[in-house]
Design a protein that fits this description.
974 residues; eight-stranded mixed β-sheet; DH_E1; seven-stranded mixed β-sheet; 13% strand; oxidoreductase; 34 helices; binds thiamine diphosphate; thiamine pyrophosphate
């Protein structure tokens, strides 16, 4: 066996298949303009000339070798056996790069299942040490450091890089330039780059603080749950580093989301929540035993800190001027991972410039999201995948979220083998091509290296990065659990495992960077600080100084003028129907849109779609930005909107609201990914962070909103009372019984009404285009005020095109939103009215249609409806009691008040409305229900059954013969 070979060291031999194609494309680019290609490629082309296939390469004379031992010239084809060894060594390198993480020593307790790592071993390829020593290093590792001369040393070095505390998992990244960059970062010694002495001392001091805080809480508040960070203590220094790096890159906002584990430690050390505040929350825990499994007093509250309190995170722009970076930790419900889309929404809102017409313009550098996950929750909760899917979507991307899985190898009492089918907790992220680093929580410097890589990657590629920090959980799920009941062996093993702070102390001591005396001094100072803060809390307690957050502020309604002068509406309407020079509007659509041109003229009618567009346009003219997102929202499920026009000739798009001369703010409309929970969560977060924006989320059909129930229950409904977190988000939920079956009829109105209390939101079910116009404008007017609250609209389906729903233009240019609308033409002889029908939404239009046709009931001949009046409750919550009371009071001879609904009795508004009507019904009048009977499924699957049932409801409602005195009560009960 020869030890030296005259062969080419050109790196092109290792490019084949798609990689060769790619490098050839880069070369062509280079020939056109060398500066257009990455400097590393430029260097390679300058050094090695054009890339060529192995076949051609073996046939040609190799160029002169300038690096390594084999600085001579020959042809590769000279020694096929040697060539095979080189190729195999190349495969080995590729395997180490791709699969080295499987052999990494990054599992502190050694709990990982053993994996077959034979692909990483030379013997698998029949390569001996001598074989490898004979191969020049640069043949198999193009950028091997100068000091590494041969293949053996190269492999040793690569093994060390890829299989120690850091496991790099990049093989799933399809973008070649990114993967090369990532591997180069790993191989450039980044991972082994030592921290400075100051950095190391600061890191140790931080770990001491982290640990002392937990042990102090344990001692001072024995028996209370804190969801200790211990076992993954490095989370705090890692977040410190992320803040420093992102602030250095110019981020003005860092938006963080996390669950219970380590939250108190993060709140105090990263967000600057004072020790005293946390101690006082523990002190006031009302029933220490009953704190929920992952809750604790104050644990779900967020905190907005500011890095001006945080050493090293300032960014000096120029002398005397400082840019501040605000870091926020989102309020978090117990529901694991559901905060993710909310934080993504915060972040995008912090990046978007909404001040000009058109789409808002994001600045990805202005804000960054950091999400901290649990290993069981990341693998198990579907919301994680839904949120990762935002990564590259125009309306939702944010230039890269940094994810950290705090991987303690267990979820409550469930081990990984029972909680996921994947090898790693992080595997889901691979589908989204997110680079992943698995790092040992016991190696502080490796953790910091992972963070630096994540930040650099985000900075360079504006994409997500994931760090899977593998540690353990020192206590049970919480500190009152005995984990040995369920994981005896694991916890016996762990009991003897040294804490990370001790491991790192020893590292620094062995390098002579810290002394025992200095360590003792630091620890004593930390303990004294903690004790002093606790003493202060106790003193304040004695003096009654501790205040509580007030979340009880009730909202007051006030009159808001939402009418828009007729001239202004006409001019806006005309401008909305102008297209850019040369833009062709799809013929069929153009005809539909052009019908809007005279809708504002005398005798014209504004339909639902036009009312919506005019509402949007006038809100933009008032200077208020709008964001609308949902499935197919550009066109809308029922094609009433068409706010993005598509040129059938060129494929170009045009949104008339973007070029509207009157607009003074951005208008964002996005077709969302097919998700409800994540998109609603995102839009909620967007709205909370940009309260001045009218943010609208639209469901494809209203009932699909129940896929987002957690966001509705945990954030929208309760966010203000739980966290003083206000939102004015609008939910448009198509609702209405039209025979489409169980799944497309009901937006589950009853759920929104059962959650309604303390003025938490507005729930409306409308029957006119003008009402929609005014309600949207009213909602826009209350954004960013004390009045702000979500608006839930049961949106129409067939009613969109119903002429009874269209409005005169006067109804837009005058008046305002009416919480209750009375049926025109009824109730004029007040003394004759015996039945008052109250109803809401589409059934009111069905009744009006029947009245108009005069074909129902015994009055068909005479058309005498004097015994009847109908009022539509357009705003169900807050209940317009004054309006309803005034109507009832007008009719002295009422025999009954009837609630008519199209939904089953156990659904719709009946259960909500019944006590409200009863409380206001005159003593001698009955309160009745007419609607579908109780059902377990919201609607029938058969059109003919639907028609029959609907007909029955209308007939009974409009039939004088069914009056209470004449008929038995029809309350729908079985
Ligand atoms: C949606 C949801 N389901 C169930 C729970 C109850 N729960 C709280 S913590 C926990 C285990 C979480 O494990 P992991 O994600 O690994 O985080 P760790 O507690 O280990 O840090 C469970 C099941 C919850 N909080 N949220």
């Amino acid at each position: 066996m020869k030890t030296e070979h005259d062969i080419s060291q050109s790196p092109w031999h290792f490019y084949y298949g798609p990689n060769l194609g790619y490098i050839q494309e880069v070369y062509e680019q280079y020939l056109k303009n060398p500066d257009d290609v990455d400097s590393s490629y430029k260097e390679l082309f300058q050094r090695w000339g054009p890339p060529s296939s192995p076949a051609s390469a073996s046939a040609v004379q190799a160029s002169s070798v300038t690096n390594g031992a084999a600085a001579v010239q020959t042809t590769i084809s000279a020694d096929p056996a040697f060539l095979k060894k080189v190729v195999d060594a190349g495969k080995l390198v590729r395997n180490i790069r791709t699969y080295g993480h499987l052999a990494a020593q990054n599992d502190p307790l050694g709990l990982s299942n053993s994996t077959d790592t034979s692909l990483l071993k030379p013997e698998t390829f029949q390569l001996t040490r001598e074989d490898l020593k004979a191969i020049p290093a640069s043949l198999i590792w193009e950028e091997a450091p100068e000091s590494i001369q041969n293949g053996w040393d190269a492999l040793q070095k690569l093994q060390e890089t890829y299989t120690q505390s850091l496991g790099f998992e990049f093989g799933h990244i399809h973008e070649e330039n990114e993967r090369i960059w990532l591997n180069r970062q790993a191989e450039s010694g980044m991972a082994a780059k030592p921290l400075s002495v100051t950095e190391r001392t600061a890191l140790l001091n931080r770990l001491i603080e982290v640990e002392q805080f937990e042990t102090f809480l344990q001692r001072a508040f024995l028996g209370q749950k804190r969801f200790s960070i211990e076992g993954n203590d490095m989370l705090v220094p890692m977040l410190d580093e992320i803040v420093r790096e992102l602030a250095h890159d110019g981020a003005r906002h860092i938006l963080m989301g996390m669950a219970h584990r380590g939250r108190l430690n993060v709140l105090t050390h990263v967000l600057g929540k004072p020790y005293g505040t946390i101690f006082s929350e523990f002190h006031h825990a009302p029933n220490k035993d009953l704190i929920p499994s992952e809750g604790s007093i104050g644990i779900s509250f967020g905190w907005t800190g500011d890095v001006k309190y945080h050493l090293g995170a300032h960014r000096s722009v120029k002398a005397g001027e400082t840019v501040e970076t605000r870091i926020s930790l989102a309020n978090n419900p117990s529901h694991l991972e559901y905060v993710n889309p909310v934080v993504e929404g915060f972040t995008r809102a912090a990046q978007d410039d909404r001040s000009k017409p058109g789409y808002p313009v994001p600045d990805f550098g202005a804000a960054a999201a950091v999400l901290i996950h649990g290993d069981a929750a990341f693998a198990g909760e579907g919301i994680v995948a839904e949120s990762l899917n935002f990564k590259k979507l125009q309306g939702y991307e944010n230039g890269g979220t940094i994810h950290i899985i705090v991987n303690n190898r267990i979820g409550f009492t469930t081990e990984s083998s029972d909680s996921r089918s994947t090898h790693y907790a992080s595997d889901l992220a691979k589908g989204y091509e997110i680079p992943i680093v698995h790092v040992s929580a016991d190696d502080p410097e490796a953790c910091i290296a992972a963070v630096r890589m994540a930040c650099e990657y985000r900075h360079k590629f504006h994409k997500d990065f994931l760090i899977d920090m593998i540690g353990y959980r020192r206590y049970g799920h919480n500190e009152t659990d005995d984990p040995e009941t369920t994981q005896p062996l694991l916890y016996q093993k762990q009991r003897n495992h040294p804490r990370v702070v001790s491991i790192y102390e020893n590292v620094l001591k062995s390098k002579g960077l810290i002394t025992d005396e200095k360590l003792e001094e630091t620890k004593q100072a930390g303990l004294s600080r903690l004790q002093a803060e606790l003493d202060l809390v106790k003193d304040n307690e004695k003096q009654g100084k501790i205040g509580r957050m007030d979340t009880s502020a009730r909202l007051r309604s006030k009159e808001i003028n939402t009418a828009v002068p007729h001239d202004k509406l006409r001019s806006i309407n005309a401008n909305l129907l102008k297209w850019p020079e040369g833009f062709t509007v799809y013929g069929k659509l153009e005809r539909i849109l052009m019908r809007r041109s005279d809708a504002l003229d005398e005798g014209g009618k504004v339909d639902w779609g036009q009312a919506e567009t005019l509402a949007f346009a006038t809100i933009l003219a008032d200077g208020k930005p709008i964001r609308l997102s949902g499935q197919d929202s550009e066109r809308a499920t029922f094609a009433h909107r068409n706010l993005v026009l598509h040129d059938p000739v060129t494929g170009a798009t045009h949104c008339p609201l973007h070029t509207l001369p009157e607009a003074r703010a951005s208008f964002a409309v996005y077709n969302s990914p097919l998700s409800e929970a994540a998109v609603l969560g995102f839009d909620y977060g967007y709205n909370v962070h940009s309260p001045e924006t009218l943010v609208i989320w639209e469901a494809q059909y209203g009932d699909f909103a129940n896929a987002a129930q957690v966001i509705i229950d945990q954030f929208l409904s309760a966010g203000r009372v739980k966290w003083s977190q206000n939102s004015s988000l609008v939910m448009l939920l198509p609702h209405g019984y039209e025979g489409q079956g169980p799944e497309h009829s009901s937006a589950r109105l009853e759920r929104f009404l059962s959650l309604a209390a303390e003025d938490n939101w507005t729930v409306a079910n409308l029957t006119s285009a003008a009402q929609y116009f005014h309600l949207l404008r009213r909602q826009a007017a209350i954004t960013n005020t004390e009045e702000a609250r979500p608006l839930i609209v049961m949106a129409p389906k067939s009613l969109i095109r119903n002429s009874l729903v269209a409005s005169d233009s006067k109804a837009l240019s005058e008046g305002a939103f009416q919480p209750v609308l009375e049926q025109p033409g009824l109730g004029s002889s007040a003394r004759k009215v015996e039945r008052l029908i109250l109803c809401s939404g589409k059934i009111a239009i069905d009744l009006a249609t029947a009245l108009e046709a005069g074909k129902d009931g015994e009055n068909a001949e005479t058309k005498d409806w004097s015994w009847l009046h109908i009022a539509r409750v357009e705003q169900l919550y807050p209940f317009p009691k004054g309006d309803v009371e005034r109507i009832i009071a007008r009719f002295p001879n009422l025999k009954e008040i009837v609630w008519v609904q199209e939904e089953p009795q156990n659904m719709g508004a009946w259960n909500y409305i019944e006590p409200r009507i009863r409380a206001r019904a005159p003593r001698k009048s009955a309160v009745r229900y007419i609607g579908l009977p109780k059902r377990s499924s919201p609607a029938s699957g058969f059109q003919y059954i639907h028609n029959m049932e609907q007909q029955r409801i209308i007939s009974v409602a409009l039939n004088r013969g069914t009056l209470t005195v004449n008929a038995k009560e029809d309350n729908g009960d079985e």
